Structure formats: structure tokens, C-alpha cells
């Protein structure tokens, strides 16, 4: 059985990494059966380094039933299309799509991270919360609270960075064309990341985009028996910022 490792906010908690969510969608797209193994912040590094002989320490990491261990979501998608060419993930290969994806992650990903970083921290418990704060503040060179400051302007920036998606969906049913593919799953996984940690913020994002973007979102959430629609999410807490 193929096994995918994912990051949880706490024991028996939610799996929120957008890169894991996209990898889960890749596997669903290929109709590959898999089991999920959740790791908390403190468990993650040691386990993944053990699996990859110290070559990698993040998720998603997948151990396929043939023994292959593949990590990093773009590499996972490429591996899947190579090993399982039926129903390809990469449907639109051109400079415009490359440019869209190249700009999407640093734009949308950065502002999404700012919006949900405190939701992530407060969902963690005990040593995992301590680890998460220490690790992220070391990377960011500032406190989590300072990084998450000005949520209203950050929300507006996120909506601005989503406009290329809105434009594509004005004339296309899916980002990849007439059926969903790699780019759809990358975009959807980032929106699902927000939904898992802060459903109020996710709802407001969709309210701020076009009707066709909401239609696309509903279609993606309904794929694979409603996989994203039924995905486990946290309840918003009283520390959640209001927009």
C-alpha cells in the first residue's frame, strides 16, 4: 500500500500543509489507493530524515508500494505522470501556465501564510506549539504576531494575487482547461489550507472573487467523492482575526 506522510497540528489533528493536500489530490487523480500517516511538528523531521537517509525533512513524502520514496509535491506529480501515464496531471504545458504557477506560490502562498500562521500556532499543543513558534520565528526573523500584523491589508493583497486565477476561470472551466489537472490542484490546495485552519477567512475569500471562481471551487471540492468538501477542518477560535 502506498503511504503518504503528512503534518498535523497536533495528535489526531488536522492535516493542513498545502503541499500535502496537493499530493493527496494527485494520488486521487491517479486513482491510487493510499494510507495516511500524520506526524506532528516535533515528530516530522526525525521520521522523514530516517526515511530519506537525511536527504529531506519535510512533507509531503510518499513511500510507494514498489518501495520508491518520492518527496516534494512537484516531483511527486512528475513521478506519477511518469509511472502512471494514464490520466495525466500536466495537461497544459506552455509558458503562460509556467508563468502563472511561478507567480502563484510566492504571491498567494506568502499572503495565505501570513493570514493563517497564528491559527496554526494556536491549534498546536505543548511542545509542538513551542517548536512551531521557535522554528518559524527563526526563519522569519520576527515574532509570529508581528508577521501576522495588518490582516486587513494582507487579505486585500491575497485577493489581488488571486486575480490571475479569476481571469483564467472567466474563459475556462478549470485552470488546466476543460478538465482538472496539476495547476487546479496546486491552487485548490492553497485555498484548502486556509479553509482547514480558518473557514471564516476561506468563505470571505470566495465571497471576494468572481462567481465563476466559486463555481470552480465547488467543482474541485466535489471531486473524488467530495474529498475536499469532507476534509477535516478546525473550528475558528476567538483569536482569529476579523476582516
Automatic annotation (TrEMBL):
GO terms for molecular function: glutathione dehydrogenase (ascorbate) activity; glutathione transferase activity. PROSITE patterns: GST_NTER. GO terms for biological process: glutathione metabolic process. Residues 7-88 form the GST N-terminal domain. It comes from the Eukaryota. GO terms for cellular component: cytoplasm. InterPro entries: Glutathione-S-Trfase_C_sf, Glutathione_S-Trfase_N, GST_Omega/HSP26, GST_UstS-like_C, Thioredoxin-like_sf. This is GST N-terminal domain-containing protein. It comes from Conidiobolus coronatus (strain ATCC 28846 / CBS 209.66 / NRRL 28638) (Delacroixia coronata).
Amino acid at each position: 500500500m502506498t503511504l503518504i506522510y503528512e503534518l498535523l497540528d497536533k495528535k489526531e489533528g488536522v492535516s493542513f500543509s498545502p503541499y500535502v493536500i496537493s499530493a493527496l489530490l494527485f494520488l486521487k487523480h491517479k486513482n491510487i489507493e493510499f494510507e495516511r500517516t500524520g506526524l506532528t511538528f516535533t515528530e516530522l523531521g526525525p521520521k522523514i530524515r530516517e526515511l530519506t537517509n537525511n536527504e529531506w525533512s519535510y512533507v509531503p513524502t510518499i513511500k510507494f508500494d514498489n518501495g520508491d520514496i518520492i518527496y516534494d509535491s512537484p516531483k511527486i506529480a512528475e513521478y506519477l505522470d511518469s509511472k502512471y501515464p494514464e490520466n495525466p496531471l500536466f495537461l497544459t504545458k506552455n509558458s503562460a501556465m509556467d508563468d502563472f504557477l511561478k507567480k502563484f506560490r510566492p504571491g498567494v502562498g506568502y499572503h495565505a501564510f501570513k493570514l493563517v500562521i497564528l491559527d496554526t500556532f494556536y491549534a498546536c499543543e505543548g511542545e509542538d506549539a513551542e517548536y512551531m513558534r521557535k522554528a518559524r520565528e527563526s526563519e522569519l526573523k520576527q515574532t509570529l504576531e508581528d508577521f501576522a500584523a495588518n490582516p486587513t491589508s494582507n487579505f486585500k493583497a491575497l485577493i489581488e494575487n488571486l486575480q490571475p486565477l479569476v481571469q483564467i476561470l472567466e474563459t475556462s472551466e478549470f485552470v488546466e482547461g476543460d478538465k482538472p489537472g496539476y495547476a487546479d490542484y496546486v491552487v485548490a490546495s492553497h485555498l484548502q489550507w486556509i479553509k482547514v485552519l480558518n473557514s471564516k477567512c476561506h468563505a470571505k475569500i470566495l465571497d471576494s472573487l468572481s462567481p465563476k471562481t466559486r463555481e470552480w471551487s465547488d467543482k474541485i471540492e466535489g471531486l473524488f467523492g467530495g474529498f475536499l468538501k469532507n476534509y477535516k477542518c478546525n473550528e475558528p477560535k476567538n483569536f482569529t482575526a476579523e476582516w
